[in-house]
Amino acid sequence: MLNNKIFTLRANAQGYLIPFENNVALASFENPEEEARTWKTRAKYYLQSGLPLTVFGIGAGVHLQYLHQETILPITVVD
């Protein structure tokens, strides 16, 4: 049996392209910036560790922009 996944992109009101998998948003459609700020706050311990970061899931990438603003360390993304 094939695992049929349908990926689409939809623009939200702020102009962000939000990826969807089988009609399920892979990032906040309404407010991806707020989601990214929350994500960054929760990752603060790891940002302060001095270790390279690994992030699982690219979503719309907004959280990666926020992380990049907080560190000069390498960020590896696995999707």
Describe the structure.
There is one protein chain. The longest helix is centred in the middle third of the chain and has 11 residues, at 32-42. By secondary structure, the chain is α+β, with helices and mostly antiparallel strands. The protein starts with 6 loop residues before the first strand and ends with a strand. Helices cover 32% and strands 25% of the residues. Helix 1 crosses helix 3 (62-70). The strands form two sheets. It has a three-stranded antiparallel sheet, with no helix packed on it. It contains three helices and five strands.
Supply database-style keywords:
two-stranded parallel ribbon, globular, 32% helix, three-stranded antiparallel β-sheet, 79 residues, alpha+beta
- Gross geometry: globular
Runs with pLDDT <50, length 5+? none
What is the mean predicted local confidence, pLDDT?
89
Measured between the Cα atoms of the first and last residue, the distance is 23 Å
User: What is the helical fraction, as a range of percent?
Assistant: 25-40%
Summarize the SSE layout with pairings.
Elements: E1 7-11, E2 17-21, E3 24-25, H1 32-42, H2 44-48, E4 53-56, H3 62-70, E5 75-78
Parallel strand pairs: 4-5
Antiparallel strand pairs: 1-2, 2-3
Helix pairs in contact: 1-3
Task: Briefly characterize the structure.
The chain has 79 residues and is an alpha+beta fold.
